[in-house]
Specification:
With 87 residues, this protein is of the alpha+beta class. The protein has one domain: Aspartate Aminotransferase, domain 1 (Alpha-Beta Complex). It is 45% helix and 25% strand. Strands 1-2-4-3 form a four-stranded antiparallel beta sheet. β1 and β2 form a beta hairpin. α1 packs parallel to α4 and α3 runs antiparallel to α4. The chain starts with a helix and ends with a helix. The mean pLDDT is 88.
């Protein structure tokens, strides 16, 4: 269910770059959305969800990284609530 929810939110945000491996999940928001987001507020919201988030700002795009730890819930349980706040 969370995968379908993430897919629909990624399409609505026009997220085209998703990277995933065993330790990291990364998405890059497009320029039009990145321009509208206040980075400090995004950081605060993310830290309330999990301290495993990290952010980059390159080429006018925000990249959200989530570091996956063994024993935690599936990473989408953290990513989806953050995307809800972005939308």
């Amino acid at each position: 269910m969370y995968e379908e929810w993430f897919d629909s939110m990624a399409k609505s945000c026009n997220i085209t770059r998703v990277l995933q491996n065993e330790r990291l999940f990364e998405i890059t928001l497009p320029k039009n959305i990145s321009r509208e987001i206040k980075g400090d507020l995004l950081f605060i919201e993310a830290m309330q969800i999990s301290p495993n988030f990290k952010f980059k700002y390159m080429n006018e795009c925000i990249t959200i990284q989530f570091f996956i730890k063994k024993g935690d819930k599936h990473f989408l349980y953290y990513i989806v609530p953050l995307l809800e706040k972005i939308i």
